Amino acid sequence: MAASDDIFAPGFVERPYWWDAAPPEDARDQPLPEETDVAIVGSGYCGLSAALELARNGMRATVLEAGPLGQGASTRSGGMVSSGQKLVITGAVTAFAPDQTERVFEESKGSFSFIQELIRREGLDADYQPCGRFFGAWAPGHFATLQRNAELLRRHTQVDAATLPRAEQRREIGSDLYHGGMVVKDYGAVHPAKYNKALRGAARAAGAALHSHAAVTGIARDGDGYRVATARGTVRAREVLVATNGYTDKAVPYLRRRIIPVASYIVATEPLPKGVMDEILPHRRMMSDTRRELSYFRPSPDGTRLIYGARTSPFDQDPKAMAHGIHRRILQAYPQLDGVRLSHAWNGFVGMTFDHVPHMGTHEGVHYAMGCNGNGVAMATYLGWQTALKILGRQNRPSIFDGRPFPTKAYYSGWPWMVPLVSGWYHLTDALARPSTILGRA
Questions:
Q1: Partners of 162 in beta bridges
Q2: How far is CA 145 from CA 138, 181, 182, in A?
Q3: First-to-last CA distance in the chain?
Q4: Interhelix angle for 45-56 vs 376-392, to 10°?
Q5: How far apart are CA 33 and CA 308, in angstroms?
Q6: Which GO terms describe its molecular function (predicted)?
Q7: What pLDDT was estimated at residue 156?
Q8: CB crowding 19-43: b at 16 or more within 10 Å, else e
Q9: How far is Cα 104 from Cα 114, in angstroms, rounded to an integer?
Q10: Which of 120, 118, 116, 125 is CA-nearest to residue 56?
Q11: Which contiguous run of DSSP H or E holds residue 151?
């Protein structure tokens, strides 16, 4: 195994690989408007999707971002696009009444259909690939769970889901790490930063105004509208949408107490030798596993690099320090990559909720849409669109995710002090599910 000092390629950077092709944007060239119809806090997929739909329908939509446009998790994720599998796998669907279950799956599937149609209709340069996804069984007992999940997904979301025993998994992954797995052929992938950039372009073309370095510091009622205070001045808005997900801060204390920001860490390898990608990911699918502290990985859109995400320590670290643990996970799955170095390492904050389901709604008249629990590429895009339709009065029916009780806990003020405890428990659970890993064996 390579020495730890040798895992970083020359020119290594602590920056998302995705930003090489589509960096965040400084948009301070225009002053903030004094008034707007809808002020949108956050320039991620949710906020931009809402801005696009609102502007297309003649409303003045103003996006306000704390830093450069596209600096948050929308351009830091793995770019995996799926529908309702997390609601199945985590059991979060049980948070809904039994007679609502089919609606939950219907809208989850609808979020996947919506993002595909949006990319097609708008001609978005997002490197969208309908590549499918493989879920690896971390422990022998997890394979039966994946079999049940495949059946639930087929029944409720009508996706093409099938399982492979360990003896056949090399058809999908060039590794013996897992104990079989599940393949969902209908899922896909985007280049997350290019998708964000393309959404920015579409929203602007429709008439939306996008402003960077305009951190929102407060939102207050002002007659029949709101005064939105920012680092660059105050904007009066008829409606406000907060779409900050894992970056929700003290400017909106009600929402901050309901979103748990959890850091996820990702690395990119240097370009792989010719033919290696054919061996390790023969169908170029998205990949994840059944660990509580899961690994997720994929090829870069051009097929030259491995992008690998994981949280390998209960405690937050700088991305370069966490990269050592991720590198060990890469070699655990792919010993043949010993000697391949890392070119990028970064992190981003996932917006988790206490009930593990996404939420949209209003609080004191202010709209919000957030809490995608690591499934945000499609769902955040969909919730932004749904919120825009709600503001426009054009929904055929309310979203199943709209207006639900948005839980918090008495012990939680917005500072995620419990994350290391939960993460530590997850790591222990993963180790006990597969005791050989405690001894360093796969």
A1: 183
A2: 11, 10, 10
A3: 15
A4: 30
A5: 41
A6: oxidoreductase activity
A7: 81
A8: beebbbbebeeeebeeebbbbbbbb
A9: 15
A10: 118
A11: helix 142-157
Which residue bears the tokens 């402003």?
Answer: 211
> Mean of the pLDDT values across residues 270-298?
97
Closest among 392, 388, 383, 394 to 360, alpha carbons compared: 383
Are the C-beta atoms of 193 and 78 separated by less than 8 Å? Answer: no
Number of domains the chain is built from: 1
Tokens read off for 360: 């949209």
The string of DSSP letters for 377-426 reads HHHHHHHHHHHHHHHHT--SS--TTBS------TT-SS--TTHHHHHHHH
pLDDT digits (tens, 9 = 90+) for 165-215: 999 999 999 999 999 999 999 999 999 999 999 999 999 999 999 999 999
Domain holding 207, by residue range, is 4-439
Q: Which amino acid is at 126?
A: A
Q: Any bridge partners for residue 361, and if so which?
A: 368
pLDDT of 91: 73
Q: What is the CATH number of the domain that holds 424?
A: 3.50.50.60
Q: Are 266 and 359 in contact (CB under 8 A)?
A: no
Q: How large is the angle between the packed helices 101-122 and 142-157, nearest 10 degrees?
A: 70
Note the pTM of the prediction, 2 decimals: 0.96
Question: What 8-state DSSP symbol labels residue 25?
Answer: B
Q: Residue 48 — left, alpha, or beta (φ > 0 → left; ψ -120 to 50 → alpha)?
A: alpha
CA distance 309 to 319: 11
Residue-level pLDDT at 2: 43
Separation between Cα atoms, residue 440 and residue 442, nearest integer Å: 7
Sheet containing strand 296-299, edge to edge, reads 8-13, 342-352, 260-269, 306-310, 296-299, 286-289, 133-136, 181-184, 161-164
